[in-house]
Amino acid sequence: MECLAMGQGDRIRTFIHGLDDKLGGGIPESHVVLLAGEPGTMKSTIAFNMMHQNALRDGRPGTYISLEQGRDNLTRHLDQMSLSPAGCGDEGQHRRPRNDPPQYRRDGGLHVARDFKMYAMNLKRSLNYDILVVDSLPVLEVMSRFEKPA
Questions:
Q1: How far is CA 146 from CA 27, 108, 117, 140, in A?
Q2: SS in 3 state form for the chain?
Q3: In this structure, how many other beta carbons lie within 10 angstroms of the beta carbon of residue 109?
Q4: pLDDT digit of tens for each residue in the chain (150 aa)?
């Protein structure tokens, strides 16, 4: 596999053995990456590990938004994987998992997408994260399909 030429600029490391080299140092800043796979293939763990390692090693703050797991359940899972947010030290360099997305108006996908984008932008302003993880896309898609449920 050849190194992908994705332009110059800062990179966000994945900390996956060999992948950063293939990507020319990591994922280019401001790029969106979709982790796809069957349930149970550790997509969430990979995403959180990347965010966790960037906070620990590179001082890059991150925010993890879970749309399907509660904070306690997610934190327990991360503790089992030795990825406890508490292990990052300075709270300003690593954000705790969030599961408090806005209460969406369920009147069509465009409103949900717009509202979620505004929520992420407000988080960026208030938390100033470098890495945003949204878990998971299928849940966000389901939320966007509701049309005035009873």
A1: 33, 6, 17, 11
A2: CCCCCCCCCCEECCCCCCHHHHCCCCEECCCCCCCCCCCCCCHHHHHHHHHHHHHHHHCCCEEEEECCCCHHHHHHHHHHCCCCHHHHCCHHHCCCCECCCCCCCCECHHHHHHHHHHHHHHHHHHHCCCEEEEECHHHHHHHHHCECCC
A3: 15
A4: 334 444 456 899 999 999 999 999 999 998 888 888 888 888 888 888 899 899 888 888 888 888 777 778 877 877 888 887 665 544 433 344 454 554 544 455 556 777 778 888 888 898 888 888 888 777 777 766 655 444
Token readout for 71 is 């904070």
